[in-house]
Structure formats: structure tokens, C-alpha cells
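Weekly modeling sync, notes
Attendees: S.R. (lead), two postdocs, one rotation student

Agenda item 3: backlog of single-chain predictions. S.R. asked that every request posted to the team notebook include the full sequence so nobody has to chase files. The rotation student volunteered to paste the first one in as an example of the format we agreed on. Action items at the bottom.

Example entry:
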Amino acid sequence: MKIGILSDTHNLTNNIRAALAVFEREGVRRLFHCGDITAEETLGLFVGWDITFVWGNMDLAQGSLQAAARQLDLRPPVPLVRVTIDGASITVLHGHERLSSIINSPLPEGIARGYVLHGHTHQRRDERLGPIRVINPGALGGTRRESRSVAILDVADDDLRFVEIDG
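Predicted structure, as returned to the notebook:
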């Protein structure tokens, strides 16, 4: 299964629309948003997508974001998510502060490899730490001047690709 990974959208709707167009073209329907949604209006862009959100440090209006997500029939953001897809464990969070404890935790029984998806730094990352692959898709928004990007991961093939978004 291919999954789309995006983070730090910071309410930059043009870049979000461009990223969603990339995912659509690539046949990606399952998305993970690694935090910093920032505004409930942004959530409306994700209606119809199978998306999981985690909280970011800039998601200050948590109550209104949760209410808006429920009203739009989206999963409300949570601090951390763990799922299994195509036999791989996937953990999603925003900041990298808790990475060492997650990476040093054993994988669930019967799982040979895992992924940790995070945002916050606005820097792309693809690092293998034993059976864990740590991925940061980069950022779609924010005030920093880095290029904008998302990532597409084919979990079955362990194939990762970063896609730059013109924004």
C-alpha cells in the first residue's frame, strides 16, 4: 500500500491543494499528517481522504480543531498514532523529542520492520535505525525558506520518494 505523508502545513492551503493533487495522481488515498495543521478551515481540504492527524506544537486551538474534524467526519487529531499496514508497524507523531524512546522500544510481536513518521523540524529525513526507518516529509508551510515537500511511501516495497511542491 502507498501512503502519503505530509506535515507542518501551517494553513498554507495552496500547497495543501498541490500536495493532494500529487497524491491523487499517484493513486495514494491513505494519508498521515504529522502535525501543525493550525486552523480548522484547513481540515475541510481533507474531506474524502483516509487521513490520520497528530497534534503539532502550533495546533493551539485543539478544542476547535477536534470539533471541526468531527463535524467534517474526519478523525480528530491525537498526540501519537500506531498502526500496522502491510506487515509493518507505523508510528506517527509531530516532534522528534520522543523518537529515542519509540525507536528503542521493541516492535510488536510478529512485525519485522517499522516506520516512525514525524514533522516539526521542517527538514526531510530518511534514516534507518536498525529495523526502524525514520521519515520526515519536510514541510508544506511555515515561515522558514526551505523547499516544500511531501513523501510517498510504498510500505509493501519499502520504497520512499520525496515530492517537491511548488509553492
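Discussion: group reviewed the output briefly. Strands lie at 2-6, 30-33, 50-53, 81-85, 88-92, 113-117, 125-129, 132-136, 148-154, 159-165.
Action items: rotation student to repeat for the remaining queue; S.R. to check formatting next week.
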